[in-house]
Amino acid sequence: HAQVIKTTKENMAEVISEQLKALNITKLLYGENDSHREVITALDNKVDLQAYDFSIDNNKEMLFNECPAALSTSRCSIAATGSIVLWPDENEPRSLTLVPPVHFVIVDANELHADFASLMTSQQWQDKLPTNVVLVSGPSKTADIQQTLAYGAHGPKALIVLLINI
Which strands sit side by side in the sheet containing 83-86, from one edge to the other? Predict the structure, then answer.
């Protein structure tokens, strides 16, 4: 299951810092997104920050072995399934939310939709479908190997939802 933490934009940096400390994580990868610029600025002296401003081709070693946690934003969320909707782009590519073992995601309660159909209608997907949308309903887990439950096989082992505007 995902861990959901109700917070405010003003307290978010402190919440992230506390969570990272509890997990013994000292480095945070983040996407260049203006919506959480203040949070990144507030975290500057508390954690080693790494902007995702590089090509994955030349930085696989760093991405896969030196980035234990990442911070991203969500496009919205879906109440019926408890899903978070990610909208990967050049500032927050899919690998930002897929590769690091711990994923912090900012979810705005004002962007909650009842179900997938109402999401598509309200965002007018009938006029222009997005090129890539990812629905996340929890951390990665599978029981493919010998029917033993394993976390992190196909994505982050831990999902920490930072719920704002509630």
Answer: 112-113, 76-78, 83-86, 134-136
- Average pLDDT by consecutive 10-residue portion of the chain (166 residues)? 90 95 95 86 91 86 90 94 91 90 94 94 85 79 66 74 89
What pLDDT digit, counting tens, does each position of 92-134 carry?
999 999 889 999 999 999 999 999 999 999 988 888 877 888 8
3-state secondary structure 5-64: EECCCCCHHHHHHHHHHHCCCCEEEECCCHHHHHHHHHHCCCCEEEECCCCCCCCHHHHH
How far is it, in rounded angstroms, from Cα 90 to Cα 58?
A: 16
Domain boundaries, the chain: 3-75+84-112+133-164
Q: Are 104 and 16 in contact (CB under 8 A)?
A: yes
CATH number, span 3-75+84-112+133-164: 3.40.50
Residue 143, pLDDT score: 67
Q: Which two tokens stand for residue 87?
A: 């909208």
Q: Could you tell me if 22 and 51 are in contact, meaning their C-beta atoms sit under 8 angstroms apart?
A: no
Burial class (CB in 10 A: 0-12, 13-18, 19+), 39: buried
Q: φ, ψ for residue 69 (rounded to 5)?
A: -150, 155
Strand partners, 69: 102
